Amino acid sequence: MFRDMDDFKISFERLLKELEFDLSNPFEDVEKVLCIEPHPDDCAIGLGGTIKKLTEGGIEVVYVCMTDGSMGTLDDNLSPHELAMIRRKEEEESASLLGVKKVIWMGYRDTELPYTGEVRRELVKIIRAEKPDAVLAPDPWLPYEGHPDHRVTGFLSIDAVAFSPLPNFASTDGVAGLKPHQVDVFGFYYTARPNYFVDITDLMELKLKAVRAHRSQFTDDVWEKWEPFLRTVALYYGKKAGVKYAEGLRFMPGLFLHITPFAELI
Ligand SMILES: [Zn+2]
């Protein structure tokens, strides 16, 4: 029994080495990151501090926003189209606070992001066009995540990263000059199973500012609850990381996102 355990442990360590999976600095050889978000404020909420650290370090970060954010209001005088336009402006302001110059808008209707082959192919096209070294997406297995756009964005991102290197997948992309692309680093944010932490203690106030730039979402009364919520999340990850404020991510080798019974162990 114990002998078996040891065999597994040794074999597991060897496998991680073979996969060149190293959590000491996942961004070491990364020059470009694609950060995929369900709604226009999710990159800032989930990763604002991390994104600022990356861009300050000379790494290019591009957002892909899956939906138009047009449902995020309790104001019945604001049409979906008007709100979508407001949210685009807010996102551009928020992104620029974090050093992000490009936002790609997929434009699906908020609350209705479909989990289909068509959206998957569109996302593959973006990955092939942008050629990121790393992709970050919401963890679709976050326990109790109630928003379908968040779960679907996570699943679509996993699929797109897995399929973008396959030349026979969406092979007509080649006509548009797009070539298969292998993403080297894949990680989740909004995760309950972080295996990597970014110390954002010095960036917490800027992160809050970047979130608050989404003024249509964070009116004064909403912010009264959201500021303590965001600080509590950062303190939660911070406690695990041994710093004040942190953001938690979960990096996974591609192989562990398919038929692996011990994927949770890393
Ligand atoms: Zn969202």
UniProtKB/TrEMBL annotation:
Domain of life: Archaea
Record InterPro entries: GlcNAc_PI_deacetylase-related, LmbE-like_dom_sf
Molecular function in Gene Ontology: hydrolase activity, acting on carbon-nitrogen (but not peptide) bonds, in linear amides
Database matches in SUPFAM superfamilies: LmbE-like
A Pfam entry, by short name: PIG-L
Ranges annotated as spanning the membrane: none
Name assigned to this protein: Diacetylchitobiose deacetylase
Species, as recorded: Thermococcus barossii
